[in-house]
Amino acid sequence: MMRPATIRAFEASVIASQLIRIVNIVANAGAMAAALEIERNQLLVGPFANMLVAVGLALAISRGKFAIARWFLLVVIALDLIGLGGIPAVATMIGIPFAIFSTLAILLMLAAGVLMFLPASTAWLKQDKAD
């Protein structure tokens, strides 16, 4: 059976969020490294690890139908939402464009969080599990 639109939109939302995040960080890595007083390569480890975890969990949900992975991804999304509080400081340290794209990435993750718990998504994840 074809995946419902909610699951397809969920997957696209997570992947788009992570791509925006990585491009944003790579494009501003020099300024971020200087502001944090660390080397550029050290700075890149966290965002790439976060991307692997988020996309991996999203694919486990959208392709593997592992409903339990929703709860782990929900923790990642909650941490992102907590990060929204730091956006004004980031805008001051790195710049307004960086802050805008960071906010967009977080909002896409929030949208994914909503999409993965919609009734059509839940029903699809439960399908074939009752046998």
From TrEMBL:
What is the protein's species of origin?
Novosphingobium jiangmenense
Q: What is this protein called?
A: Phage holin family protein
The source's domain of life comes to: Bacteria
Keywords (A to Z) from UniProt:
Membrane, Transmembrane, Transmembrane helix
Q: Where are the transmembrane segments?
A: 12-36, 42-61, 68-90, 96-118
